[in-house]
Amino acid sequence: MNKAIFIASAEPWTGKSIVALGLVNMLLRKTQKVGFFKPVIALQPEGKKEIHIETILNHFSLPIEYADAFAFSRQEVLHRNDPESTAEMINAIISKYKKLEENYDFTVIEGSDYLGEGIAFEFDTNTEIAKNLGAPVLIVVTGEGKSTAQIISSVTSILHNFEAKEVQVLGIVVNRVQQEQINDVKELLAVQITSGIIVSVIPWDKNLQSPTMKEIADNLNAKVILGEQLLGNQVNNFVTGAMMLPNFLPYIKENCLIVTPGDRGDILIGALLANLSANYPKVAGIILTAGTKPEDPLIKLIEGLQTVIPVIAVEYGTFETTTRVGAIHSRITAGNTQKIEQAIELFDKHVDINTLDERIITFRAEGITPHMFQYQLVKQAKSAKKHIVLPEGNDDRILKAAARLTAQQVVQLTILGDPAEINASARRLGINLDAASVNIINPVASAYYEPYVQTLYELRKNKNVNLEMARDLMTDVSYFGTMMVYKGDADGMVSGAVHTTQHTIRPALQFIKTKPGVSLVSSVFFMCLPERVAVFGDCAVNPDPTAEQLAEIAISSAETSARFGIEPRVAMLSYSSGSSGEGADVEKVRKATLLVKEKRPELKVEGPIQYDAAVDPLVGNQKLPGSPVAGRASVLIFPDLNTGNNTYKAVQRETGALAIGPMLQGLNKPVNDLSRGCTVDDIFNTVVITAIQCQDN
Questions:
Q1: Whole-prediction pTM value?
Q2: Which helix (H) or strand (E) holds 571?
Q3: Distance of alpha carbon 333 from alpha carbon 58, whole angstroms
Q4: Beta bridge partners of 190
Q5: How far from chain centre, in Å, is Cα 446?
Q6: What is the DSSP string of 8-59?
Q7: Which of these, 690, 669, 661, lies nearest to 538 by C-alpha position?
Q8: Who has the most CB within 10 Å: 122, 169, 284, 519?
């Protein structure tokens, strides 16, 4: 079940607050546990809170600490413009959001406001956050100051931009549309948008757009002369008092703000009397400009009147003051209950909340992003801490990864090698190998050594292994580490940074062996592509599998995919799609596909299919229309090791994808292999997935 929705825009002043208030109110009708999160906010003055967050939390009494409702300021995000810093930022946002998700049934997420420099970067950031949080997007577009044609163009253009970023759009709200445009906008959008996206049109509402006297005073840094208790007065329009009083009075309109120089006592008195008169509209307030104030006798006279309107003073000249007032955008604030209720009423009236509610609940995200995948992996590994052995303690990369793993308390580790040398290397590298989480063992000097020798001899004596041979083999760190796993002294092993794949997995094949019902050990890579995570198998173990073996690899890979939170849609890859090609290699894949369907009829599987048809929706629909896999494959099974190994490396290098693995599948206990060109990140991630495999055992 979906647990979040992301309110996004691509331009400033769209009125997202109306949508946020309406959504939270809609959700609170069904559940009391609604969260609110705005990942990126504008930098706030000392002691001030972000207006949208404060309004939502206060009005609905949401039990969320203010600091938990956001992650970064806009300025912090703009400074994080390199890939590494951006990745750290996304990970921090995911972590903060997940804490809210754990405590609330549903979370409303609001995107940033597009106020200031770096708007293009801001759009990319919002789409990246939405994708990584797995939340469908509700786009808000403003119709203010736009013709009908401009509104339609804005909506279609913004929708295209979100879809081009592979963001899943649930609905569009066109806000602040003039009443006479409503029907035309609805009809034209119904023709333009036919993809099942919910479209709502909210009319322009003067009461929500008009600022209060307090907003004006705050924006102009004004001094309050009189009527502080009436600063909540709403200003619907303003007029400059620059002519003689008799000529000025006809320009006063309902809830009017009067801007006049401070030495115009006649305008000031006239406005106050007009406000008291039944023959003139209500005056919202007065601004005295140019740093001048009324004389004391005039102030005394005004203070004695029964009804006083707010009078504020500014240092600006009259023209500059009117320009600044005209540029003020009213915002819905925590204390303005009337505006909040008007916003909710407007949302309820013009948005199909029943359809929206149903679509929100039934929404299902397609795929999982690399950042979210890695976050979930680490969280899952931590949920039941396992003991992993790392045989290659003589490699600096292993030690650096070990330090990260133990600092984050992901696993308990045993590192094989000479303790003095390993500790010296740790000091040289400036890392801390926490003695409480890391055990360093020299195999030959270990108390485990003799019992392990005896066990290996008993297991392999029928294979012509005598006691001396067993003693010699057990000095090999791969054999010693694998025996630790076999005997239960460790839960899993990760090796291969120094040793070959064959050297790493040979002991496992000899005495850990395969699970019941599994005849073949195979491997998968988790390919963390820019927008999604795919499973590639087998790219590391089996050179030329038969059709039967290929089917088994596909089934094992699908099970692995599901175990790690990726919905398996299996593509059996070949050089042709469907029935278009012939030849022994194609027939092998075709037969393997039929075997998968026979053994696991519930699996979504397609084959033979070419790579482009498997992953590109347009190509997939052309070559295999109606296929549940074509264009959407998440598990890609290669016909042989030559194809698989080269493809994963080509994809990794050309796209910058992170390849986690290979992860071996089919063994009784987890043993995983590293590439000799692995990075510290590769080791970290492989240990994490090994720990998760251990939880299944």
A1: 0.69
A2: strand 569-573
A3: 10
A4: none
A5: 47
A6: E-SSS---HHHHHHHHHHHHHTT-S-EEEEEEEEPPPPTT---HHHHHHHHH
A7: 661
A8: 284
* Distance, CA of 550 to CA of 571 (rounded, Å): 12
φ, ψ (nearest 5 deg) of residue 572: -90, 100
| Cα–Cα dist 242/270, whole Å | 13
SS3 per-residue string spanning 503-519: HHHHHHHHHHCECCCCC
Per the CB < 8 A criterion, the answer to whether 135 and 141 are in contact is: no
pLDDT tens column, 668-695 = 999 999 888 888 888 999 999 999 999 9
- Taking only the tens place, the pLDDT of each residue in 54-107 is 999 999 999 999 999 999 988 888 777 677 778 888 888 998 999 888 889 899
**Angle between the N-to-C axes of helices 547-563 and 584-599, in degrees from 0 to 180, rounded to the nearest 10:** 50
For residues 592 and 572, give the distance between their C-alpha atoms in angstroms, rounded to a whole number: 8
Please report the domains of the chain, with CATH numbers, ordered by start residue.
4-207+337-361 (3.40.50.300), 213-326 (3.40.1390.20), 375-513 (3.40.50.10950), 517-666 (3.40.50.10750)
Beta bridge partners of 35: 107
**99: helix, strand or coil:** helix
CA–CA distance, 311 with 331 (Å, rounded to integer): 21
* Residue 78 Cα distances to 36, 43, 58, 97, 118, angstroms: 23, 12, 29, 20, 7
Is residue 155 pLDDT above 90, yes or no? yes
Q: How confident is the model at residue 1 (pLDDT cuts 50, 70, 90)?
A: low
pLDDT exceeds cutoff 80 at 514 = yes
